[in-house]
Amino acid sequence: xxxxxxxxxxxxxxxxxxxxxxxxxxxxxxxxxxxxxxxxxxxxxxxxxxxxxxxxxxxxxxxxxxxxxxxxxxxxxxxxxxxxxxxxxxxxxxxxxxxxxxxxxxxxxxxxxxxxxxxxxxxxxxxxxxxxxxxxxxxxxxxxxxxxxxxxxxxxxxxxxxxxxxxxxxxxxxxxxxxxxxxxxxxxxxxxxxxxxxxxxxxxxxxxxxxxxxxxxxxxxxxxxxxxxxxxxxxxxxxxxxxxxxxxxxxxxxxxxxxxxxxxxxxxxxxxxxxxxxxxxxxxxxxxxxxxxxxxxxxxxxxxxxxxxxxxxxxxxxxxxxxxxxxxxxxxxxxxxxxxxxxxxxxxxxxxxxxxxxxxxxxxxxxxxxxxxxxxxxxxxxxxxxxxxxxxxxxxxxxxxxxxxxxxxxxxxxxxxxxxxxxxxxxxxxxxxxxxxxxxxxxxxxxxxxxxxxxxxxxxxxxxxxxxxxxxxxxxxxxxxxxxxxxxxxxxxxxxxxxxxxxxxxxxxxxxxxxxxxxxxxx
Length: 523
Ligand code: ZN
Description:
Layout: H1 7-17, H2 22-27, H3 37-43, E1 50-53, E2 60-62, E3 68-70, H4 89-101, E4 106-111, H5 128-146, E5 151-156, E6 176-178, E7 185-187, H6 189-199, E8 215-218, E9 220-228, H7 230-233, E10 244-250, E11 252-253, E12 256-257, E13 259-260, H8 270-276, E14 291-297, E15 304-306, H9 310-316, E16 325-331, E17 337-342, H10 347-355, H11 359-362, E18 363-367, E19 372-376, E20 382-383, E21 389-395, E22 401-404, E23 409-410, E24 413-414, H12 419-425, E25 437-439, E26 449-454, E27 457-472, E28 477-488, E29 491-494, E30 498-501, E31 506-520
Parallel strand pairs: 1-4, 4-5
Antiparallel strand pairs: 2-3, 6-7, 8-13, 8-30, 9-10, 10-14, 11-12, 14-21, 15-22, 16-19, 16-21, 17-18, 17-20, 19-25, 23-24, 26-27, 27-31, 28-29, 28-30, 28-31
The structure holds zinc ion.
The site of zinc ion (ZN) has 5 residues, from loops.
């Protein structure tokens, strides 16, 4: 009899359908009076609408016999001042249940929360919990309406703090505070917020403001024979293992599609958000999210490789993007070097040097240090050397041609090389090194400084020391914290975190001691 999950259909079925639920008649048989035909006629009158108060719901699952079984809430589940659980889903499922079971439009006749409201030293009543509650519940109601439920009205409980039928004046449900001694009224923060919700007909709700939310992404890590442990130890990767080579921080690539951690898109993959909400990315004219940001930890030398451009990849790699990429050196040993470009003067010379294995003569090895920026155009022979940790920003593509792998074995056999395709795409002669390498120590502090601009991406760096502001005026901005920690628009962030600022995000406010690398594409 205490199972309130029965409450709704037990009382509503007779009113709206003209009979009690069969299962209830059996279950409650011992307690029931004689119910006559004329009782039912009286109860079941023609009605114009139904009204329902919805505050919270139970969480149930099907037990082994298919019967509903209540699930205990986790300790610390949010609750209101009166002890009722905060369950915004109840407004969604409650509305769906009622409007699908009964053939009448619905009014939500009560919904709201009791808070521990008090007057602050500024004379105001700040009730952020009530705003968060209403924001989530109204969003849930909107979802039900969008899916076809007919809700004609919503009554927020309540305007003034009032006499609660069980607890009297102990609980404060109002959006206007009442001092019961003086009868003074003070509009709470939630009243001003609700005024705006009404003015904008709900446009202000979080669920309708995806552009104002930071999309924090859960990175995807890969195990590689050349990988190490820095991604786990320094960059917050939760993956086990001492062979973590890559951490795909911002990616919608099928081989590592990042999941949004919080906000209106929580649990959704980045590719899903891209497809369903192109406005978040400024309605760009691309058929997929265009960039991929990853951190690479090379414990050992990586193979010598080259990537094709868009035209070649379109034709020979199933319509894939080509791959233009760039590196920002996060950390490296004192005398670190990497491979960038080659010394062959003609295609013929290139081919013979590769076929004869004259690698020392062919490959251009250049010194690098922390903070260097390196652009790698398609057709550029390149390789990361052991000990280097870097942030790579690239076109959303995975097409790599391996030119040489130091004759190493993987599981007893040499890894596959792609010499013919490499010869097709390698640019001869190679671009001068100075055109591809940029030292980025310079640049104003606390300003978003551009490191590089090409048709595929724009790369920025911002060093925050104290406070920094900038306007997010790009279609989107992928951001990675590469050093230190701080706060962005109220959210704590630290080294190893990756997130996206949507189109129209507006003013970004950063504070702390940190360095971030950002990227976007041209409109
Ligand atoms: Zn590469």
